[in-house]
Amino acid sequence: MGLSKTIWTNPTEFLRAQGPETPVLFFAPTALQAAARRFIDGFPGMVTYAVKSNPIEPVVENLAAAGVRGYDCASSYEIDLIRRLAPDAAIHYNNPVRARSEIAHAVERGVKSWSVDSKSELAKLIELVPAEGCEISVRFKLPVAGAAYNFGAKFGATAELAVELLRVVADAGFIPSLTFHPGTQCTDPAAWDAYIRTAAEIAADAGVTIARLNVGGGFPSHRLEGLAPELEAIFDLIGRVTGEAFGDSRPLLVCEPGRALCGDAFTLAAQVKAVRDGGHIFLNDGVYGAMAELPLIGVIDRIEVLTPGGLRRRGAPEPRIVFGPTCDSVDRLPGEVELASDIAEGDYVVIHGMGAYSTVTNTRFNGFGDLRLETVLSQKL
Ligand SMILES: *Cc1c(COP(=O)(O)O)cnc(C)c1O
User: How far is the CA of 101 from the centre of ligand 1 (A)?
Assistant: First the structure.
């Protein structure tokens, strides 16, 4: 995926001038920096970025420029990336399962914050990580509904185990903290409420005053036309409930959004390869490309259709079956997608809010996936 040095006014200008036959992601640095500022100004604690959601260099560089000082990393590759692009930033190594060689690598790179959700992995950390000035956050889970899918299926200790782990962390001389991840695209602030209250109970049961509470990612991006994310309502709830639940032993707060920082900063344009017998739409990008996430958490409806000349199609929205370019029949957008009725071969389907889990999950399956990246001043068509 190459990034050209030209900055375009908006996606329309590029599409009209270049007529690309490969899918294009348009990156708007101004939108990314605005999202970063919204978090830094509104969240009552430290804002870190979940690197996995979009690790391309211009994203990290723009977040660092906007004032993001911490990064949630899950692998040696991500740790090295952040050390290179934001050398002074804090790295939180929050993948609770690590090979011994990965632990050693992170110690060498000066990582001072780790998460853990099991006795066996905690034993490895105690053996390999010097405790001095180092934080270990115990990750716990709850059976909470409200997220787009269940993150507790893979990671997180039960509250009972978390009590035990937290005591061991404190006894071993590490800075004890707690963390959770409520899911992804959590539009309901209540997703955080029960987690924060349970964190306070875990700390009390363990008899440990925690230094920090990391409330995870999961903040929503703008995926549905009529449903703009209400981040400030979530920030307010997190601040209020932390005060209520912890009282005098209130920990510092940390969050680690991915999607909510990068999602709205990218717009995808995919070209219509064919309108098969007037019905099914075939695009040059699909679920093996930048749209990998749509079958998992649902389609984005912030879609516009442009002619090759850059004019907006005005036909009334009509539900269509939309396929990607590969020969695999699962390469289809979920359900049916409302598209302008006069959509035609050669048009561009432009989907907003495509910055998260898109650049990084794009594959070359079946020889497709030649995804371009272009920079724009504005995403308005
Ligand atoms: C994936 C992940 C995040 C980011 O999730 P978003 O839904 O993109 O905000 C944050 N924390 C952890 C531990 C994760 O695994």
Answer: 24
